[in-house]
Write a structure and sequence with these properties.
Elements (H helix, E strand, L loop, with lengths): L1 E4 L8 E4 L9 E11 L1 H7 L16 E8 L11 E4 L2 E3 L5 H4 L10 E2 L11 E5 L4 E2 L6 H4 L5 H10 L6 E5 L3 H12 L3 E6 L4 H9 L4 E4 L8 E6 L6 H7 L1 E9 L20 E4 L5 H10 L9 E5 L3 H9 L6 E5 L3
Parallel strand pairs: 10-11, 10-13, 11-12, 13-14, 14-15, 16-17
Antiparallel strand pairs: 1-2, 3-4, 3-8, 3-17, 4-5, 5-9, 6-7
Length: 329
């Protein structure tokens, strides 16, 4: 099969031919139709996330069709359309797994990081960590739901019932979660790179009551903010814009260094917290909710062999919405 392979961090992916993988007893073999491109992929490729399994096929927003079942798999059938997310394996016996926090599992493995992912024509995945795709969602529009959507949904849950919600970084995750927030009758304030008039208009088109640069102050104090951009300097910026008792949620898996800040912008029972990975429950809840809204993803499609170009476009903020690789099998 054709695949895009990371052989060495900080180097472009290589187009290669490798054997189609064989599923183990609890895995399924999936013919990949689409694979979303995530900023986490950039963090892995750029060496910011340590110890990836190398050589590695990246990609963890996979949509495809099952073509082979492992011997013990009973929850799916050949021909089923499934999605494969970032969380690819947990141990089911550590203290986190036993307390419903499998996203923090000490022995977790992640798709496109420790497990080969979806920048390829075929992939294998543990059937227990695959999701059924809601009817009515085309493959292309589904792929961004599997990480941008899921992490955004988990992050939104950390903001409780915040009425005035700030979103810092208006990319794939924010353009999905603003639709959920508006469905919940929240008022959303979108922060983009300074001067990004197109991104700000995109946010307003999706229902933001205000949009401006991350160097601007919103017209009212926020009850909560979610930081999707991997920029540590946004933490004190968001705290200054957040009312007493509010929360600033850092949604990324990697962030640049957070600068020192005065205690008075944290005082008043403000809180800073991170979001780590996702649980299968997050996936089941979000993929049930998304078609009820319905969430509509805006996607820019690239062929598999253009993965490097797509990653560069994402790196430099040239993607409006989400980028997705289309695998022609």
């Amino acid at each position: 099969m054709q695949a895009m392979l990371l052989e060495t961090p900080k180097q472009p992916l290589q187009a290669v031919e490798v054997p189609i993988p064989t599923p183990t007893v609890d895995q399924v073999l999936i013919r990949v139709q689409m694979c979303g491109i995530c900023r986490t992929d950039l963090h892995i490729i750029d060496g910011e996330l340590r110890d990836p399994r190398l050589p590695l096929i990246p990609g963890h927003q996979i949509v495809g069709t099952i073509v082979e079942l492992g011997a013990t798999v009973t929850e799916f059938q050949i021909g089923d359309r499934v999605g494969v997310p970032w969380l690819g394996y947990t141990c089911n016996h550590c203290r986190y797994c036993l307390s419903g926090r499998e996203n923090l599992c000490d022995f977790a493995k992640f798709t496109g990081y420790q497990l080969n992912g979806g920048y390829a024509e075929y992939t294998v995945a543990d059937a227990r960590f695959c999701f059924r795709i809601p009817d009515g969602y085309p493959d292309l529009q589904t792929a961004p739901l599997l990480c941008a959507g899921l992490i955004g949904y988990r992050s939104l849950g950390m903001t409780s019932d915040a009425k005035h919600l700030g979103l810092y970084g208006f990319g794939a995750a924010a353009h999905i979660i603003i639709q959920v927030a508006r469905h919940q009758n929240r008022q959303v304030y979108a922060f983009t790179r300074p001067g990004d008039a197109q991104g700000q208009q995109f946010a307003r088109d999706l229902g933001a009551v205000w949009a401006g640069g991350s160097d601007e102050f919103p017209p009212t104090l926020l009850d909560a903010a979610i930081i999707f951009a991997p920029v540590g300097a946004l933490v004190p910026t968001a705290l200054k814009a957040t009312a007493k008792g509010g929360v600033v949620v850092c949604a990324g898996i990697h962030m640049s260094e957070i600068p020192a800040f005065a205690y008075d912008i944290l005082w008043g029972e403000r809180m800073v917290r991170s979001v780590a990975n996702l649980t299968r429950r997050d996936g089941e809840e979000f993929l049930t909710l998304a078609p009820q809204i319905p969430v509509q993803t805006q996607v820019e499609a690239f062929p598999l062999t253009a993965a490097n170009q797509a990653l560069e476009a994402l790196r430099h903020g040239r993607i409006q919405g989400a980028a997705v690789l289309v695998i022609d099998t």
